[in-house]
Design brief:
The complex is a heterodimer of chains A (about 230) and B (about 300). With about 230 residues, chain A is mainly α. Chain A contains eleven helices and no strands. Chain A is globular and about 65 Å long. Chain B is an all-alpha fold and about 300 residues long. Chain B is built from 13 helices and no strands. Chain B has helices at about 5-25, 30-70, 80-115, 125-145, 150-165, 170-185, 185-195, 205-220, 225-245, 250-265, 270-275, 275-280, 285-310. Chain B is globular, with a radius of gyration of 23 Å. The chains are: A mainly alpha (about 230), B mainly alpha (about 300). The interface between A and B is large, with 114 and 140 residues.
Chain lengths: ~230, ~300
Amino acid sequence: MLVLIGILIIIAGFLLRFNPLLVIMASALATGLAAGLDIAAIVAAFGKAFNDTRYVSIVWIVLPVIGLLEAYGLQQHARTLIGRMKGATLGRLLTSYLLLRQAMAAVGLTSVAGHPQTVRPLVAPMAEAAAEAKNDALTDDQREEVKAFSAATDNVGLFFGEDIFLAIGSILLMKGVLEGYGYVIEPLHFSLWAIPTAIAAFLIHGFRLRRLERRMAQKDVAQETGA
Amino acid sequence: MITLGFVYVLAGLTFAAFALLGLRDRSNPKRFGNAAFWGLLSVSMLAGDRLGDFGNGLLVLALVAIAGTDQIGRAPGGDVPAEIQAERAARHGPFLLLVALIIPAIALAGTFLFKWLPGLADPKQATLISLALGVLIALAVGMTRLKPPPLLPLQQGRRLLDAVGWAAILPQMLASLGAVFALAGVGEVVGDLIGTTIPEGSLFGATLAFGLGMALFTMVMGNAFAAFPVMLAAVGMPLLIKQYGGDPAVVAAIGMLAGFCGTLMTPMAANFNLVPAALLELRNPYGVIKAQVGTALPLLAVNIVFIWLFAF
């Protein structure tokens, strides 16, 4: 039971808005101590895991390219492009991106798009421009919501597309765990059972994107009653 | 053969450049903190395998100390003025878009090519290696045509990373915390607790507990991978599969997706939820989560109903 102290530290730390890196370290130390490890062993375990997961942080190598392109006006160009397309509404734009992201993830191409690679330089400015096309008086709050939904759409597309791909980590994990219990299951079965949820995710999030478009077209935000 | 090691060297050199450029930026009152932070990250990328576990642990403690004492900041300004950007966009627009699409295009092509022609690159890491190649090619193409000052990409890249700040390593830190949790057996304890809350003899109750447990435990751990073995052992296997005869493929596949609904709602999944908020410069660090809750909750309900409908 005592090892749950780490979870309490995490929840309290995030709620009280302490620096998350400090909160994580405190949680790791408390959990390790509660489990009877000594400090040196906890530091070493954390260090080993940090070194093993470096691949998580290599995505930042795209920033010099994004920085170069943005300095030359990529975001402006993305906006101009949307301005020229008459049918490109906010809802249609983000729904198309959702479908594209789900389809790419479903064939295993998860790292092709993402927040630094596509959302910041392309999707978010395009979404802003599409919202502006209907409402020339977009407020700061509305602008913030459009950007937040651009990122959210990337996440929903990725999460509810990737499990259709046979060789993704989560499917291999499920296969491995179930084999431990004596159930040998072909990866294809897991993939197929991810499809109903993928469709439901598309319908639910797509519906919310349509409502977002309508909300962003309203100039008087005071009447907005929340999502 | 190209391996992930090549990508780590590239990342290490990039972070080293960010550290050096940051050190020279006198307009940033916290330049020493920034330089130390990105410098340490560069050491981790370049030499992490030679530091040993404890050495890496000390490196992490130093990173946490720098961030935790608020030694990281960004210099004000530095943006290219909007008029200049607009004028350049009018001239180079389509070319910029083309270069932006080089990265995903190479990542895509490389993923297939390296699997198809084994021996060129480590097939298990094909996409990450291709992503790095895409970056190098896009940079070369962009530099050749635009002829910017040579350091401009690194300077602008550094500004973007400074805007993200310490959140840049949050995902890696949370993944490491997960490893310590696993070592301490946190999962088993949580699983036992949830197992005791299920009403006896209720199939729907058990399904509900499994789906909600996946989502909640995923929210605590920040990813569904950590929650899955625990919830399967506590509820999925003994009740849904063994006692009620549910189809293990359905229970596992849709249970995992119920966990993904939890991922959409937690700050612990920093790379999906907090990092983009920083990257898009949102005022509310939880803005992305706020946008996702309305999709995650109904989808979680749908997943629980799907397990109940399809597994039995």
